[in-house]
Amino acid sequence: MGIKESAKKQFGKQAEAYAKGNIFVDVVHLSEVVKKSGAAKNDRVLDIATGAGFLALEFAKKADTVIGCDLTRNMLVKAREKEKTSGLDNTGFLLSDVESLPFPDKSFDIVSCKFAFHHFPDPEKALLEMKRVCRNRIVLVDGVSSENVEKSLFHNRIEKMRDPSHVRIYALSELEKMFNKTGADIVDVTHWEIPQDFEEWIKRAGAGEKLTGIIERLMVQSMEGDTTGLKVKIEDGRLGFAYDTIILTARVRDIHV
Questions:
Q1: To the nearest 10°, the Cα dihedral for 155, 161, 166, 170?
Q2: CATH topology of domain 3-145+165-195+242-252
Q3: Which of 87, 101, 233, 257 has CA atoms 20 to 30 A from the CA of 208?
Q4: Taking all residues of the chain, what is their mean pLDDT, rounded to a whole number?
Q5: Residue 253 CA to chain centroid, in angstroms?
Q6: How far apart are CA 198 and CA 201, in angstroms?
């Protein structure tokens, strides 16, 4: 099964859990993303891999028009449910692949992507397509992995075990290279540490009991020397860790790459 098919299966199966996950619904974080994007009243915004539409609907409070697209039909069902109860009438959601967007060049002022970039099988191709339809700014929100290669490899090994649709959580330096190669100049990077409860995190992915046990042991082992870079700890009897998350804003260069 390819990565895209794996992502469709994973997010289709777990749409309800992802629609409620704290990492996606944090209103403070969502509003900060919109603020950092510089979204204004007359802007058109495209939210890539919109999932249940949380960021798209937050953008719709500021911008003129917001389109959310996703590869998974079940996630879009959740987005449209939220759209109906939001009181907003300037949004739309459609089924679409980030590598082949159904929009003309420079259709949007802002193109955003939140907690999905690490699922893209060809991130540079995705970025090029995001840049193609964007005339101003790209906003990327995602976790970043350690700059220490061994820690990053261990971290990503665990992520892949938990969720087969996972490709790679990149180090910030890797993202910087990708954006530069694509033709987008990073103008701001804001770090945001997001605490995660292990049980909620593993449940969101729908991992089975055996796999959960293996991952839990690996996470506990990583505490000595922080070998994943995730600051894993046990507090009040509960296992937890922290994602180093970034809100990255880049201005697109008007050149051919």
A1: 10
A2: Rossmann fold (3.40.50)
A3: 233
A4: 91
A5: 23
A6: 5
